[in-house]
């Protein structure tokens, strides 16, 4: 876990219950969920195995230990989890080096949060080496804190990453808005006690208590997030 600027504590606009915004990365801010599946497919093809497309919904949004472990078991590939993790990270890093598209509305939302000095954290199940590469495109100046999947004892769907982000920012998880694209990430945020905005990427997500589902980040702005917190208090 690294801090790119000093933690901003609980500074918010007057009258707002919102203390911080915690954002997922893959599939939420950057259009990369498909990249991971492409890399997984290519790596297993090189090992002599074909991935079943139905498995994509199983591995999306999860930590690499879970997704890679599932694929090893499902295919019977002769490779260790550590070896596969290296191959997948290498392949993904090469892929985003060629192209790294942002999700619609991502750049505008990050700029708005920065302009209003809203404490913002990037919270991802991806490893630190991947986050640091993606930050070059997203802009590290937009984040007071970044939390990687290989820096917490348990990553998503456990609450640890979001609890770590809230603690690092010095804010109450119950007054944080989390933006996520997968059921795994939503489960982690809700287990941490945060309010969740779900923007489904690969698999659908249903609305629930303390959870609002939108079609795109283009529907999400600071007014929306503050209003959401007020409605759910």
UniProtKB/TrEMBL annotation:
Source organism: Streptomyces violaceorubidus
Protein name: HAD family phosphatase
Lineage, uppermost ranks: Bacteria, Bacillati, Actinomycetota, Actinomycetes, Kitasatosporales
NCBIfam families: HAD-SF-IA-v3 (TIGR01509)
């Amino acid at each position: 876990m690294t801090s790119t600027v000093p933690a901003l504590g609980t500074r918010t606009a007057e009258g707002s219950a919102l203390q911080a915004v915690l954002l997922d990365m893959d599939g939420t801010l950057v259009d990369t969920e498909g990249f991971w599946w492409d890399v997984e497919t290519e790596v297993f093809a090189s090992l002599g195995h074909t991935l079943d497309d139905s498995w994509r919904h199983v591995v999306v949004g999860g930590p690499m230990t879970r997704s890679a472990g599932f694929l090893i078991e499902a295919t019977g590939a002769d490779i260790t989890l550590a070896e596969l993790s290296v191959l997948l990270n290498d392949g993904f890093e090469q892929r985003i080096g060629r192209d790294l598209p942002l999700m619609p509305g991502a750049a505008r939302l990050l700029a708005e949060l920065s302009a209003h000095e809203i404490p913002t954290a990037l919270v991802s199940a991806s490893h630190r080496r991947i986050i640091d590469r993606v930050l070059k495109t997203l802009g590290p100046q937009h984040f007071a804190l970044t939390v990687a999947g290989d820096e917490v004892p348990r990553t998503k769907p456990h609450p640890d990453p979001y609890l770590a982000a809230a603690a690092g920012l010095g804010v109450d998880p119950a007054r944080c808005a989390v933006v996520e694209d997968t059921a795994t990430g939503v489960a982690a945020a809700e287990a941490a006690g945060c309010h969740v905005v779900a923007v489904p990427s690969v698999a659908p997500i249903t609305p629930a208590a303390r959870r609002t589902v939108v079609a795109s980040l283009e529907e999400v702005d600071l007014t929306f997030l503050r209003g959401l917190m007020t409605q759910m208090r």
